[in-house]
Design a protein that fits this description.
Blueprint (H helix, E strand, L loop, with lengths): L1 E5 L8 E5 L9 E11 L1 H8 L17 E7 L11 E4 L30 E5 L3 E3 L6 H4 L2 H15 L7 E5 L3 H12 L3 E6 L2 H11 L3 E4 L6 H8 L4 E6 L3 H10 E9 L13 H5 L3 E4 L5 H13 L6 E6 L3 H9 L6 E5 L1
Helix pairs in contact: 3-4, 3-9, 6-7
Length: 336
């Protein structure tokens, strides 16, 4: 089978198409023919050697994917040949709070990821795909969508009428917009691009938008706009934007720390967090049980993920460059 492998060092120039032996499933394993893999910023950091420089190589990158069951081991009871499935991000985190061991079973590092044509793993490492989605669409769910769902629904208990501030228009951000709207919440979305803001307004019905380059003091602007601040902030910028997110959130509100696009370290004034009872919550995707719950909600609401562009397997480096340059709205997908 073909796979994309990082083997001789860090960086996009070390990604190469390689051939790996196809393994037959045994015991409770299933063999899945992956049709698509979507890319996350974490995957780019991993390839660049910035996420975990001690990650052993070779490694097959990427965390999200979807495909079809082609063979089952003799002890498999959950799936049958022909079922459409997706692997979940933390293979062994099934439900509840994670253990250290659970968090060491993530795809795309330390375990081989989804940029491969076949994946053989225990049946508990997969969930069923919502029937109304294509595999390209479904490949965006296990990491990016579940991160947004974990923040707003599982940890945030999002309620109708609350207000969500979403930073950017990447994969997690766009799922946050869709889930917030699905739950009857108000959305304020930000981007540095007027063209992307137009998509948010015209295609997704987002009424309140801000161009953060034109409004650098956007934290105060959001607080003024909402008469005291938002209930929830999807914080994908990290240290570089966290201070303004603290300004934007209401007393008792929650900031979900999801990404570090604007940096991982900075000097912060935390007085506002203490004085206004603000919660800063780290979000690391979620367990299989929550992925299954999210998929049911996606199916009931007939939600379709935003896929910006697809690339062929041989164009994986170009796909990563497209992601790196932040030209996308939603998800970037590699068809396998």
């Amino acid at each position: 089978m073909k796979a994309i492998e990082l083997s001789e060092g860090w960086g996009l120039d070390h990604l190469q198409v390689t051939s790996r032996e196809l393994r037959e499933p045994g015991g409770d394993e299933i063999l899945v023919r992956l049709h698509a893999a979507s890319l996350n910023f974490r995957d780019l950091l991993m390839v660049q050697g910035l996420y975990n420089p001690r990650q052993p190589l070779p490694l097959i990158p990427a965390s999200d994917g979807a495909g079809i069951v082609e063979a089952c081991g003799p002890d498999v009871t959950a799936f049958a040949v022909g079922d459409r499935v997706m692997p979940h991000f933390f293979r062994d985190w099934i439900a509840g709070k994670p253990t250290k061991a659970d968090l060491r079973t993530s795809l795309g590092g330390p375990l081989d990821g989804t940029l491969q044509q076949y994946m053989c793993a225990p049946q508990h490492a997969f969930v069923a795909t919502p029937a109304h989605l294509t595999d390209v669409e479904a490949s965006t769910l296990p990491c990016a969508a579940l991160t947004a769902w974990s923040a707003l629904v599982v940890q945030g208990g999002l309620r109708p009428g609350e207000t969500v501030l979403v930073l950017g228009t990447g994969g997690v951000a766009m799922f946050a917009v869709q889930f917030a709207q699905m739950c009857g919440a108000h959305v304020i979305a930000m981007s540095s691009s007027d063209a992307k803001i137009a998509v948010l307004r015209e295609q997704y019905g987002v009424e309140h938008t801000l161009n953060y380059r034109e409004e650098p003091d956007w934290g105060r602007a959001v607080r003024d706009m909402t008469d005291g601040g938002v209930d929830h902030v999807i914080e994908v910028g990290g240290a570089g934007t966290l201070q303004r997110s603290i300004q934007a959130v209401r007393p008792g509100g929650t900031i979900y720390l999801i990404g570090v696009l604007a940096g991982a370290s900075s000097q912060l004034d935390l007085v506002g967090v203490l004085m206004r009872n603000v919660r800063i919550q780290g979000v690391v995707v979620g367990p299989r049980a929550d992925l299954e719950s999210m998929n049911r909600a996606i199916a009931v609401n007939a939600l379709h993920p935003r896929v910006d562009r697809t690339f062929a397997l041989e164009e994986t480096v170009t796909a990563f460059e497209y992601l790196r340059d932040q030209r996308h709205i939603g998800k970037v997908v590699v068809e396998l």
